[in-house]
Amino acid sequence: MRIDGKSEGLRQAMSWFHTWSGLLLGWLLYAVFLTGTLSFFVDEINAWMRPELHRSVPQPDTAQRALDGMARLAPDATTWTLGLPTERQNAVEASWRKPGAAAGRAGTERAMLDAATGDPITVRDTRAGSFLYRFHFELHAMPRVWGRWIVGIATMVMFAAILSGVVTHKKIFIDFFTFRRNKGQRSWLDAHNATAVLALPLHIVITFSGLLLLMNMLMPFPKDAVYRGDNAAFFAEFRGQAPAAQGQSGQGSGGQAGNGDARGGEAGGGQGRGGGGRRGNAAVADGPMPLTPIAPLMAQAQAAWPGREVGAIVVTRPGAPGARIELREDGGRKLTERGGSRKLVFDGGNGRLLEQDTPPPPSAIRATYNVMTSLHLGRFAGPAMRWALFIGGIIGTLMVATGMVLWVVKRLPERRKLGATPRGHRLVEVLNVAGIAGLPLAIGAYFHANRLIDPTFAQRSAWEINTLFIVWLVCLVHAALRPHRSAWREQLTLAAGLFVSLPILNALTGGAGLRVSIPAGLWAVAGVDVACLVIGALLAYAAYRLRGGGKGTVLAKTPRRKADGARRSADDGASSSRPDAGPASASDPAMARTATAASGALQRPPGRTEALPGAAS
Questions:
Q1: Angle of helix 265-272 versus helix 254-263 axis, rounded to 10
Q2: DSSP bridge pairs for 347
Q3: What is the mean pLDDT of residues 199-219?
Q4: What is the spatial distance between Cα 469 and Cα 466, in angstroms, rounded to a whole number?
């Protein structure tokens, strides 16, 4: 219902919802979209932010050297788990468990091994890209479940806002092919439409799949009603296990088995740390028994999996009779498997094949869930597909940003009529600057802190994160104290400088610079350097466009009224209420009717101006 009691049509109601849902949650959704987009390259960021690993260069015999290194590092362990180098990680990720270790992750020790020597590498304490990944669905400085609830609710609203935006803009696909430069509000509306339509299928899939990933928390009621709170039975059936297996695992080890499955590489170790793990530590008269050479086993695995690589090696009871070597395929073959991999199990003493494990095909429900969530996580993707997902995420981020800016621009005619800026409008302006321009600046500062804080500092990981939030808070204060256009320009310029200087800082602080990383084939490190240069250039271009505050920028100062101010207000109002129309012509015979309608729209109560037909933000 309108404020005057008259009823509204579907498009007007959807416009109102689209506007206010986007405004109230826009800054949070922008942060979630941006950090989630960066998370498509979480492994590459992790590699870049650990310069100590840049000297690790994989070799043909890396697997054997890693096993020899583990024999030196943890000879009495019950299990070894080795994540072999990939195109996204150039060192060996090792974990092991010692006799009597606590259950779960608490009892697991970890280290990074040099791929060329097998020796452990002392790595600086940093959350690196994993912080950005966790922030995008858990936020920070609050209980994880609270953060997930907040992001989950925001994601629901985002999904509804996308659908309501399609309903609101009846010409959205036509307008996608139209972009008018230097037309103020019209240009920003065109940009918002274009970014919304260009990756609309991806936006829908990413948002819906994000809800699927949180569904057990957001909507547990159907599961609890059917399984009566027995989570182990639910997850057992969800993974395709037989009913008998559910009953056996319902109150026993089923929950632990599920945790092991989630950890991936540690699951094999978990199976071996029962009675077998203790037997493996019995004293052997002749000392530790050597493991069979790994190269023939690797060749046998690659013959069994044409075109696939061995991703992980799990050794149970190393150095003891009955040792077993398990080779795991690097990722799943299909989206429906969501990382489910085949396994080969060998006798650790003589290399005889003991077991060949191929995951059973998932059920239709599980396969659908796997496809949707795999698309959200992007772990299946090769370099080209990962870049496509990254670009789609950037477009989604720009869609949110342009919507937030457009909210301010649409109200410029109202501000001209009032002759002042309402406090609510000023608040949105400040939050736009700090949220949209300030977050990239804060992330750039986070990367710089990774290299400038002493690696031996006791709480350096926490202070890297603190740096991000301190700089982000400073951006908020700066936006409140500076004129609107100046704040945009200054923050974008500083953010551009931070990103452009990161490749130089990388080379000066022990990392592999572009002159080293590209010839050495360290594409994960080189890719981050190149991406920083591109992001810095885009931010610099945005700052450059703001230098003059001309007609084409929505951040220009409000122009003074001219003698024909009434007609300018009418034209502005007509553009605001009818965004699919071009600028009115002074010779238009319908000018009088347009001016009258626009004046009526501008005289509505302030709470109704944002619900004009065709609103895009």
A1: 140
A2: 324
A3: 90
A4: 5
